[in-house]
Structures are given as C-alpha cells and as structure tokens.
C-alpha cells in the first residue's frame, strides 16, 4: 500500500463530510455486526476483517493509530473502506484519535516525517468528525472505553456532542478512557490517571438500564484471549491488534447472540 500525500489528503477530505453527517452516538440497525477492538497500526488485522467478513455491518471501536508499524496505512485503509461502504463500515473514535495522544505516542511524528510538516492538521480536523459511540439494534452500547461518571445514559453522552481535536468534555473523555473492574461497585480512581476512572457492576447496570440496553461492548484493554466477558456477560472487552502479546479477536453479534472469532482464523 503506497501512500502519498495526495491519496491521504483525498481519503481524509472525502471522509470529513461523510463522518460529519453522522450522529455523535450512532444508531445502527442490521441483521448482524462484527465489532473490532483496537488496531493501532495493525494493517493486517484491518485487511483480514475488511476482506473476509461478509454480510452485516462492521463497527471499529477506535485506536487506529499510534504505536504500530502501519499507522498511516491503517487509518487510510479504514477511511477508504468507510467511503466505499458508508452504511456498512462504522468508525468510532478511540482515546488515541486526539492530537494530545498523537504527540506522545508516535502518529504525529509518522505523519510529519512521511508527508511533511503541516500534514498532521488533516487528522486533527478528521478526529472532530468521528462519532463517540453507538447503539446496535437498540440493545448493545458500543464505546471505546466504557461507562463515564456523571452521565445517566448513552443519550446523556450523545448530548455532549462530538469533540474537538482533544476530548474536551470530561464525560466523553471518560467514555473513551474508562475501564471496567469486577469487585468495584460504582466508580473509582484509575491507574491510568489523568481524569480516567474505573467502573464497576452497579455503574454499568444503572447505565444500561437508563439507556434501555442489555449490554456494552468496548475495547481499550489488551486482554490475553482477545476478548473477555465481565459482569455476567453484560460487558465485553474486545481487542484486535496483534502487537500486544495477546491473541487478537473480533466479536460477532447476530441472531444467535454474541460470539467471538480470532483474527488469524478469519
Ligand atoms: Mn484505547
């Protein structure tokens, strides 16, 4: 995949109006969905998912750049897929789709080195158009991190709107940063620091009930099996990047319920 500034600029500039027209929290209805966790420059996972999953929608939960070897290729491939099939491919925002994170974790440097100084601004503009969450078939909440403290429901999160190049609203920030913990009831301090929180069973159950939903899918943590169920199956973590010493997986939500597939078996 050879990438010059022209191709990158075209992908980003065509995606911006398409993504801008999408809601802050998507309402997606389909017969089935494949849910993909962090990819972080893992172009191989993205290619496998896009080429080998047939039927239904595909929802990516964010964290496309920083850290991996093909960060630029990965996000451009995803944008081109979105442009090709806008009602089948959905791209949510992760906590790495911010200027602040890209300055520290590599993507700013990659873009500047390969495409020249000033090219990074394309992505800062793109990030503010990305949806911050979704609801699949009115029953499954999709968000990169998890339940935020200070919001009653997913509608409350949606009311905060899309964000600028960083995650300015603290509720939206937490929705993209928080982690679940068994044994915690409400909310607690996160080892990640910086405004992130951990949330427990009661926080999740209240949020689901007020949202009228049954379960929540999120990414953000590299769990060893590539997926993990918590709180009796009301929450699933899915992680799809092969560079974390884990076995990358994707989730499927269909008529038969929830199942998982390893990326290498697709
Ligand atoms: Mn993350």
In short:
The protein has 266 residues and is of the alpha/beta class. The protein has helices at 5-20, 43-52, 71-84, 99-105, 107-115, 121-127, 154-159, 170-177, 201-211; strands at 25-28, 33-36, 57-60, 89-91, 133-136, 140-142, 179-180, 187-189, 197-199, 215-218, 227-230, 235-238, 249-254, 257-262.
Describe the structure.
The strands form three sheets. A six-stranded mixed sheet has the order 1-5-6-10-12-11. It has a five-stranded mixed sheet with strand order 4-3-2-13-14, with helices on one face. Strand 11 (227-230) and strand 12 (235-238) form a beta hairpin. Helix 1 runs parallel beside helix 6. 33% of the residues lie in helices and 20% in strands. It is globular, with a radius of gyration of 17 Å. The chain has helices at residues 5-20, 43-52, 71-84, 99-105, 107-115, 121-127, 154-159, 170-177, 201-211, and strands at residues 25-28, 33-36, 57-60, 89-91, 133-136, 140-142, 179-180, 187-189, 197-199, 215-218, 227-230, 235-238, 249-254, 257-262. The chain contains nine helices and 14 strands. It is of the alpha/beta class. The chain has one domain (32-265): Purple Acid Phosphatase, chain A, domain 2 (4-Layer Sandwich). Bound molecules: manganese (II) ion. Manganese (II) ion is lined by residues 38, 63, 94-96, 144, 220. Manganese (II) ion binds next to loops.
